[in-house]
Write a structure and sequence with these properties.
The chain is mostly helical. Helix content is 48%, strand content 0%. The protein contains five helices and no strands. The chain is elongated and about 45 Å long. The N and C termini lie far apart (34 Å).
Length: 80
């Protein structure tokens, strides 16, 4: 199931604003040229910034070594 959800087909469907409209978790530079072209053709709607604009502010995922600390702080400072 995870492989399917991370597949270009599923991620492109997720990008479609009439279906979900959320961003993709795919590394766009690792996609085939065909999939990159397909991605460019998806109409995200007027309220979503173009991918080129979004890329300018893209931050990498936080390093996994911080996950335990985040869990602890979340429980201590948000949940309680």
């Amino acid at each position: 199931m995870i492989n399917f959800l991370l597949s270009p087909n599923a991620q492109f469907k997720k990008l479609d604003s009439s279906y979900w409209g959320d961003n993709t978790s795919l590394d766009l530079f690792k996609l085939s040229k065909e999939d990159q072209k397909r991605l460019e053709q998806i109409d995200r709607g007027r309220t979503v910034l173009p991918i080129e604009e979004l890329k300018k502010s893209l931050l990498p995922e936080i390093d996994a070594e911080y996950v335990p600390w985040l869990k602890e702080k979340w429980m201590d400072e948000v949940v309680r």
